[in-house]
């Protein structure tokens, strides 16, 4: 029950994007059944009637395409327009009954539980009312079109379930990657503690010993201690570099490519620009913090934005590291978004490296995160 409740608050991806895009267009082939009664029934309609029927079909296709490229609350208006086009087409000829199946499929895919019941009832009622103005019912069209509407409604429900499964898999993969990163950081922390703790004590002792030897003018012995101190320092530096090598391999560029793939898997068109990072060696602290900021920004897009397009940019100009991530989604409430823990976490990470954070939102639905980091 908890899962079902949480699912009802998640916006499904638009049908016109990703793996479902092909079938969304192929299915339009079956809409040509709309024209069959115009040429099969007697008498054949006049030119004005044919033109009106064709015009309504064009309107139907326009609303259908609008519907398949919309998601969330944005599907309500195009599906309503689609239903009105189906009613108008049916008022002109019985073939319009076959168009209602497109509306019921979209309702099955997008609508929540209560909305499904109301919507399918409205559609079936509209089908019956649309043919009542004719002199007699033609059950050759009404009965099969009713069954096809119910079948397509059920198919929409199956697609909805499959879409939720895909989304949960993507979120699970993102969470697994985050857990793996945390485990790696903890491992590196333990390694650094084991390596540096003892060695720093040795360095401190040798430095104190060298200072006392110099106070007693035992120059040669002091030089020996200082030479050993220098060797120990180089050794610990080498060990520290080896300990963080695993983290260094997770470069910012690779991390951004992984995040772009997550967005693509969520049916979001992504523009990724990292070409200016190819041959650039970033400081570990900056690379690490920027990677975590990028993860948080992409997580916000996946969870809240209902976006269809996003962009990720990272470049260096005059010793200034800049990264921008944005989308065209609906997003959450502006005040809530800015006060969220994600934005707070970004600012805290940037404070560690003297960075800056800027957020721009236009039309109340657009999120743009930009962070500029100076480095030597």
Automatic annotation (TrEMBL):
Residues 184-249 form the Signal transduction histidine kinase subgroup 3 dimerisation and phosphoacceptor domain. Gene3D superfamilies: 1.20.5.1930, Histidine kinase-like ATPase, C-terminal domain. GO terms for cellular component: membrane. InterPro entries: HATPase_C_sf, Sensor_HK_TwoCompSys, Sig_transdc_His_kin_sub3_dim/P. GO terms for molecular function: phosphorelay sensor kinase activity; protein dimerization activity. The chain crosses the membrane at residues 23-41, 50-69, 75-106, 113-133, 139-158. Its EC number is 2.7.13.3. Keywords: Kinase, Membrane, Transferase, Transmembrane, Transmembrane helix, Two-component regulatory system. It comes from the Bacteria. This is Two-component system, NarL family, sensor histidine kinase DesK. The gene is desK.
């Amino acid at each position: 029950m908890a899962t079902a409740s949480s699912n009802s608050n998640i916006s499904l991806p638009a049908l016109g994007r990703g793996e479902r895009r092909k079938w969304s267009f192929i299915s339009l082939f079956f809409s040509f059944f709309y024209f069959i009664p115009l040429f099969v029934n007697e008498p054949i309609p006049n030119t004005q009637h044919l033109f009106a029927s064709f015009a309504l079909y064009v309107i139907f296709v326009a609303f259908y395409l609008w519907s398949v490229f919309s998601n969330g609350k944005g599907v309500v208006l195009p599906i309503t327009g689609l239903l009105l086009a189906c009613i108008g087409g049916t008022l002109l000829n019985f073939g319009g009954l076959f168009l209602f199946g497109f509306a019921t499929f979209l309702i099955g895919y997008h609508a929540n539980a209560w909305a499904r019941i109301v919507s399918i009832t409205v559609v079936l009622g509209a089908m019956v009312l649309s043919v009542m103005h004719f002199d007699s019912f033609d059950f050759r069209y009404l009965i099969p079109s009713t069954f096809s509407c119910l079948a397509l409604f059920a198919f929409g429900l199956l697609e909805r379930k499959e879409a939720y499964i895909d989304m949960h898999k993507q979120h699970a993969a993102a969470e697994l990657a985050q857990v793996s990163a945390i485990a790696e950081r903890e491992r590196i922390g333990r390694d650094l503690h084991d390596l540096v703790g003892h060695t720093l004590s040795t360095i401190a002792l040798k430095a104190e010993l060298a200072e006392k030897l110099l106070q007693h003018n035992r120059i040669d012995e002091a030089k020996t201690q200082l030479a050993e101190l220098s060797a120990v320092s180089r050794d610990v530096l080498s060990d520290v570099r080896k300990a963080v090598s695993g983290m260094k391999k997770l470069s910012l560029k690779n991390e951004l490519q992984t995040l772009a793939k997550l967005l693509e898997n969520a049916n979001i068109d992504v523009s990724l620009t990292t070409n200016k990072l190819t041959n650039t060696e970033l400081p570990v602290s900056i690379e690490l913090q920027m990677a975590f900021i990028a993860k948080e920004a992409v997580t916000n897009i996946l969870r809240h934005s209902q976006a269809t397009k996003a962009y990720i940019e990272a470049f260096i100009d005059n010793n200034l590291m800049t990264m921008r991530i944005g989308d065209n989604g609906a997003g959450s409430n502006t005040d809530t978004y800015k006060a969220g823990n994600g934005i707070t976490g970004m600012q805290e990470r940037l404070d560690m490296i003297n960075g800056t954070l800027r957020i721009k939102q236009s039309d109340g639905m657009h999120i743009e995160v930009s962070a500029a980091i100076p480095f030597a």
